[in-house]
């Protein structure tokens, strides 16, 4: 099944499937039912990072340097896990400013500069071309390998082979055609391609499945698992050295450089910027991507070492390129289905990269390179054309073809001299040059257009000199002696030992010198002069992107423009119908009738500019809008004033928000305090009502008896004496009530006097029993005691404790049946203190009443007997006294069998022995 | 025939004083110590007037009053509420439940007698 027609048919079918997915995704997006609004799809689309470099090259790298393939995955993992906040800020900035590419981003940041956008575009195109050539090399290698199946013949290409006979040329053309159909079917103001993202996500799944299938096949099909493979390694000297080699000093430098480069690449490669930033649907998706994308990287790397080692063992001495092991291992085992799957997986990793990368690059070429030139030189011609959207698409399509052909050219010139990974790293080093201007622009207000231009140029020049030119020289297209002797024979200018720097690999060497030049020039030139108006404005928008979400910033525009002019201008680039719709939507959003005001305000001008920016880049958009709007230039003072006002407004509004938050909090507190007060008031009311009730009751008897006595002088002596006795006892009750109410109030308010001293509890209990002996005798009750000697002392107020004991004892007596009552008083030692219990054999207390008896004025009587005498305050007071000294008072009771009141008191704190001198 | 009055109160001494007062004036006096007993004795003995304390065990005066007024056979029975809780809300609550009069403790014996006579005459 590996005959050429079958292979080609399957490949074309697969591309057709991708196209169908993309078409469907775009259709759904037009209907407003996005299929990519999922964090998983977002994370998978990020995996466009894994190209044929990963799919074929990792194994090749591992075969040469063991775990040396890993750092390019550690960098992205670290950035996603720790640096996602940078990505978030980029997403915010891009959305707020309708930025469509990394060139647009940098140009926009430094005052919408044409020159800067162009430079970034050139760097990106030149830098990425080796990377595209890498994909061509991988795909054409695999195709020629398959064509010679079942033999395994390493592809050979002589530089003299004619272009017409070279399959990679046709592959480049097919990819170009495919990309054109894919990415430039129509022009989108936001440059978002939902269908493309869906297809890319699908490709990420396919390549992961294919790679893991080979991994499983090699590990478990050819060998017997990981253990078996590494046993083979042990037996093989060369492989053992490879896998156990610990990076030397230079090795560490290399690792560090690769981690830095790949970490920057995940942010700044045009295709990564496209999928991670421009195509981001919802910034919340970043959260899942932050772990899911690293997980993807981990999965696709699990089987790299087994395949590399398996290939080395299997093809030992046969001259098979390690970069092809992923394909040649299944081929050698005649696994035709798996071989085809691998081929499709490799095709996925190549097409995914090429499509997104060239779409991103073509947008940049169109918006930041060609359009500005047309605007400068063919302004008049542009002005005549009614609809330019066709021209824009044409430019982009042309750019795609040119970029892929340049990739092919580089492949012909330099492709043979390098392994896949080495080519990729040249590209990584190029895009890393964006870091200073871009990251600096996001976090430093002082960066200027001049600084960015200088830094990018310097870094790019050093990169070209130390990496790009040597790659040509090594392939024999440039005289090789300048590598060994330096330009003009100057030793210090040797490209890969610049100024005598030796001992590190070429990538670290380039990274060191290019960053030194880049950062030095960026910072140095930026510091030469303060930022100008446009730069300062944009700096504010970019640097404050996270702190002012959703705020477009101050509108720095003053002038006159006609709505109709603006709409016509936008219509020329986007098509008249879409312009009409966009303007109508804007009018609706701002509650205006689109036709009522012919004069456009600053907001509408800005809106038109941002619409155009999506199609032709922010710098060109600014020029185009300026052509129809009469802008009155603002002086730097005015701009600073507006910015000041805006920032003051922000400060005020923040201040207001803070004040309002404080007010809300204060209101809440007041409400709570008020509720507490009302609650206290209710409690007080209840208590007052209870107290008055308790006072009125004895007063009622006293008054009634007194009036009876007064009104009836001839009353019987017996009645008279009886009534007088009742008056006296009611008066006593009244006195007791008043005293206890005051006592309780004092305790509750914390104003009671406490005379704490060390006490022998046994003595207190005995004294209390003696004081109640009269009451006990009256009821003919019997008191048992169990009071052990020599118990530790406790710390309490003697009179108060006697008060508690008297209360408990008299309560017990009160409920006893006359004649058969028994009271048992015990004192015992517990872990942390002493416990006193007073048990009676009275009627007991129902479970539901056992808490109530400790509430004020709650007398729980056995309703069969008369209402208990007393104030209803004795137990509440007793409980508070015990609690004051750190103890507890509670009741246990079984109705019908009596009640036992118990309280505990903690031991007095340990005292130093009496004869010891007091501690200092 | 002398009028029959039931005193319902759980305070022993108050009962003693009112009982003495009313007997001296020639009324027939019955006594109940809690709400349930009061209700039972009213139904059994059909007194002309009930002096009803509010705060009583088992069943409070308001509930007793409501139960009495729900019984058509007892519609002739007058009810005088006596309470130590003198707040307006309680006065109106008692009257709302169908009590014929309301006195706040402590009261003057003369006023009590006047109120009792007034309620028994109408």
UniProtKB/TrEMBL annotation, chain A:
**InterPro entries the record matches:** HATPase_C_sf, HATPase_dom, His_kinase_dom, HisK_dim/P_dom, HisK_dim/P_sf, Na/Glc_symporter_sf, Na/solute_symporter, Sensor_HK_Regulatory
Q: Which SMART domains match?
A: HATPase_c, HisKA
Q: Where is the Histidine kinase domain?
A: 690-909
What stretch or stretches form a coiled coil here?
A: 649-690
Xref: PROSITE patterns? HIS_KIN (PS50109), NA_SOLUT_SYMP_3 (PS50283)
List the keywords (alphabetical): Coiled coil, Kinase, Membrane, Phosphoprotein, Transferase, Transmembrane, Transmembrane helix, Two-component regulatory system
Localization recorded for this chain is: Cell inner membrane
Q: Which reaction does it catalyse?
A: ATP + protein L-histidine = ADP + protein N-phospho-L-histidine
Quick check: keyword Coiled coil in the entry?
Answer: yes
Q: What GO annotations for molecular function exist for this entry?
A: phosphorelay sensor kinase activity; transmembrane transporter activity
Gene3D superfamilies referenced in this protein's UniProt entry, alphabetically: 1.10.287.130, Histidine kinase-like ATPase, C-terminal domain, Sodium/glucose cotransporter
Annotated GO CC locations: plasma membrane
User: Recorded E.C. number(s)?
Assistant: 2.7.13.3
Give TM segment ranges.
Answer: 6-24, 36-56, 62-88, 116-134, 167-184, 196-223, 249-269, 290-317, 337-370, 391-411, 417-439, 451-473
Kindly give the Pfam families that the UniProt entry links to this protein.
Answer: HATPase_c (PF02518), HisKA (PF00512)
Q: What is its main location?
A: membrane
Give the membrane topology.
Answer: Multi-pass membrane protein
Q: Which family does it belong to?
A: Belongs to the sodium:solute symporter (SSF) (TC 2.A.21) family.
Q: Which protein is depicted?
A: histidine kinase
TrEMBL record, chain B:
Q: Which residues carry this modification: 4-aspartylphosphate?
A: 53
**One BP term from GO:** phosphorelay signal transduction system
One GO molecular-function entry: DNA binding
Please give the InterPro entries that the UniProt record associates with this protein: Bact_response_regulator (IPR050595), CheY-like_superfamily (IPR011006), Sig_transdc_resp-reg_receiver (IPR001789)
UniProt-listed Pfam families: Response_reg
Q: Does the record's keyword annotation contain DNA-binding?
A: yes
Q: Which CDD domains match?
A: REC_OmpR (cd17574)
Q: Which residues form the Response regulatory domain?
A: 4-120
Q: Any idea which UniProt keywords this protein has?
A: DNA-binding, Phosphoprotein, Transcription, Transcription regulation, Two-component regulatory system
Does this UniProt record's set of keywords contain Amino-acid biosynthesis? no
Q: What is this protein called?
A: Alkaline phosphatase synthesis transcriptional regulatory protein PhoP
Question: What organism is listed for this UniProt entry?
Answer: Accumulibacter regalis
Tell me the organism's taxonomic lineage. Bacteria, Pseudomonadati, Pseudomonadota, Betaproteobacteria, Candidatus Accumulibacter
């Amino acid at each position: 099944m590996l005959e050429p027609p079958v292979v080609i048919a399957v490949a074309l079918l697969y591309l057709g499937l991708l196209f169908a997915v993309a078409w469907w995704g775009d259709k759904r997006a037009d209907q407003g039912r996005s299929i990519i609004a999922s964090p998983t799809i977002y994370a998978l689309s990020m995996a466009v990072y894994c190209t044929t470099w990963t799919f074929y090259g990792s194994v090749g790298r591992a075969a040469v340097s063991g775990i040396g393939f890993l750092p390019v995955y550690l960098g992205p993992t670290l950035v996603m896990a720790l640096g996602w906040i940078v990505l978030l800020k980029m997403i915010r900035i891009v959305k707020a400013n309708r930025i469509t590419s990394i060139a647009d981003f940098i140009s926009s940041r430094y005052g919408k500069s044409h020159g800067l956008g162009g430079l970034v575009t050139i760097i990106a195109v030149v830098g990425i071309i080796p990377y595209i050539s890498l994909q061509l090399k991988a795909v054409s290698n695999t195709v020629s390998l398959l064509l010679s199946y079942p033999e395994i013949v390493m592809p050979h290409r002589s530089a003299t082979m004619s272009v017409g006979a070279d399959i990679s040329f046709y592959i480049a053309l097919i990819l170009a055609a495919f990309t054109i159909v894919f990415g430039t079917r129509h022009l989108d103001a936001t440059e978002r391609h939902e269908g493309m993202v869906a297809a890319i996500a699908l490709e990420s799944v396919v390549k992961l499945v294919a790679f893991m299938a080979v991994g499983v096949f090699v590990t478990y099909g050819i060998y017997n698992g990981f253990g078996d493979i590494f046993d083979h390694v042990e037996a093989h000297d060369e492989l053992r050295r490879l896998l156990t080699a610990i990076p030397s000093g230079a090795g560490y430098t290399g690792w560090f450089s690769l981690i830095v480069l790949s970490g920057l690449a995940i942010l700044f490669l045009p295709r990564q910027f496209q999928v991670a930033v421009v195509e981001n649907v919802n910034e919340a998706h970043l959260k899942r991507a932050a772990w899911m994308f690293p997980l993807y990287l981990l999965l696709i790397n699990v089987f790299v070492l087994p395949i590399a080692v398996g290939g080395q063992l299997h093809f030992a001495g046969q001259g098979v390129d390690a970069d092809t092991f992923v394909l040649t291992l299944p081929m050698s085992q005649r696994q035709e289905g798996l071989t085809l799957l691998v081929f499709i997986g490799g095709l996925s990793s190549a097409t995914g990269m090429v499509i997104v990368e060239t779409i991103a690059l073509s947008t940049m070429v169109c918006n930041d390179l060609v359009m500005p030139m047309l605007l400068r030189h063919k302004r008049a011609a542009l002005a005549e054309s009614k609809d330019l959207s066709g021209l824009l698409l044409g430019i982009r399509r042309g750019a795609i073809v040119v970029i892929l052909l340049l990739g092919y050219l580089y492949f012909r010139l330099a492709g043979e001299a390098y392994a896949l990974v080495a080519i990729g790293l040249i590209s990584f080093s190029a895009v890393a040059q964006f870091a200073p201007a871009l990251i600096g622009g996001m976090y430093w207000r002082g960066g200027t257009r001049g600084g960015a231009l200088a830094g990018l140029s310097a870094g790019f020049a050093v990169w070209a000199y130390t990496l790009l030119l040597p790659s040509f020289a090594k392939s024999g297209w440039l005289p090789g002696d300048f590598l060994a002797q330096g330009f003009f024979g100057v030793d210090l200018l040797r490209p890969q030992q610049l100024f005598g720097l030796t001992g590190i690999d070429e990538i670290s060497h380039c990274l060191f010198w290019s960053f030194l030049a880049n950062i030095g020039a960026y910072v140095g030139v930026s510091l030469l002069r303060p930022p100008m108006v446009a730069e300062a404005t944009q700096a504010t928008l970019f640097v404050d992107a996270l702190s002012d979400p959703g705020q477009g910033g101050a509108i720095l525009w003053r002038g006159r423009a006609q709505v109709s002019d603006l709409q016509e201008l936008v219509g020329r680039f986007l098509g008249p119908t879409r312009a009409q719709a966009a303007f109508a939507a804007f009018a609706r959003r701002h509650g205006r009738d689109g036709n009522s005001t012919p004069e456009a305000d600053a907001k509408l001008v800005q809106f038109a500019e941002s619409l155009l920016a999506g199609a032709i880049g922010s710098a060109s958009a600014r020029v185009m809008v300026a052509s129809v709007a009469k802008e009155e230039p603002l002086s730097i003072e005015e701009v600073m004033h507006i910015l000041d006002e805006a920032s003051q407004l922000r400060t005020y509004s923040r201040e207001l928000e803070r004040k309002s938050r404080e007010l809300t909090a204060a209101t809440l507190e007041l409400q709570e305090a008020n509720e507490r007060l009302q609650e206290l008031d209710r409690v007080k009311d209840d208590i007052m009502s209870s107290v008055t009730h308790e006072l009125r009751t004895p007063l009622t008897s006293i008054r009634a008896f007194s009036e009876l006595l007064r009104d009836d002088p001839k009353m019987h002596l017996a009645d008279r004496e009886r009534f007088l006795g009742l008056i006296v006892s009611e008066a006593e009750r009244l006195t007791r009530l008043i005293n206890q109410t005051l006592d309780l109030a004092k305790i509750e308010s914390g104003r009671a006097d406490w005379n704490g001293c060390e006490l022998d509890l046994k003595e207190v209990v005995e004294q209390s029993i003696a004081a109640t002996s009269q009451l006990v005798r009256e009821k003919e009750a019997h008191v048992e005691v169990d009071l052990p000697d020599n118990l530790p002392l406790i710390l309490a107020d003697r009179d108060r404790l006697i008060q508690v004991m008297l209360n408990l004892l008299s309560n017990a007596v009160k409920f006893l049946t006359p004649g058969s009552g028994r009271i048992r008083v015990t004192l015992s030692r517990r872990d942390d203190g002493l416990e006193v219990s007073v048990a009676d054999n009275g009627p007991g207390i129902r479970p539901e009443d056992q808490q109530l008896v400790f509430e004020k004025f709650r007398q729980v009587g056995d309703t069969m007997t008369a209402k208990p005498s007393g104030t209803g305050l004795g137990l509440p007071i007793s409980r508070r006294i015990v609690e004051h000294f750190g103890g507890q008072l509670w009741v246990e009771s079984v109705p019908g069998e009596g009640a036992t009141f118990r309280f505990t008191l903690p031991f007095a704190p340990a005292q130093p022995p009496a004869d010891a001198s007091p501690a200092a | 025939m002398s009028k029959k009055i039931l005193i319902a109160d759980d305070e022993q001494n108050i009962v003693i004083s009112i009982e003495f007062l009313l007997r001296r004036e020639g009324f027939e006096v019955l006594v109940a110590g809690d709400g349930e007993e009061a209700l039972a004795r009213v139904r059994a003995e059909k007194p002309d007037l009930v002096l009803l304390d509010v705060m009583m065990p088992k069943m409070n005066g308001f509930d007793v009053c409501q139960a009495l007024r729900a019984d058509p056979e007892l519609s002739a029975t007058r009810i005088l509420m006596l309470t130590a809780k003198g707040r307006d809300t309680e006065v109106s609550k008692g009257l709302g439940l169908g009590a014929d009069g309301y006195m706040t403790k402590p009261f003057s014996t003369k006023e009590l007698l006047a109120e009792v006579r007034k309620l028994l005459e109408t």
